[in-house]
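Hey L., structure's done. Input below.
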Amino acid sequence: QVQLVESGGGLVQAGGSLRLSCAASGRTFSSYAMGWFRQAPGKEREFVASINWRGDSTSYSNSVKGRFTISRDNAKNTVYLQMNSLKPEDTGVYYCNTVPQSRLSWGQGTQVTVSS
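Output:
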């Protein structure tokens, strides 16, 4: 069973940047399309970005398009989310999982807090 560990979150001022990482165990990681999701306090988890297994096709929610970039390194079993021009509404716990269905157990996530 593949396990997911998210990291890289923190407290940042509006306009700042963070780079999140999602490390996966297991040899089948490279065969999965992967996505990032986030959950703000009192809200449901929402889709942020996804990348196909080869890393040559990506998609983004309208709220982050042009500011966030998803990438992956299959040799390192890791998916990244580069977040630039952060806004207070980007605050939340960020998770990764497979897409389009979330097939794996959710990790603990990594907290991102953007202050205004």
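The radius of gyration is 13 Å. The chain is about 0% helix and 45% strand.

-- N.
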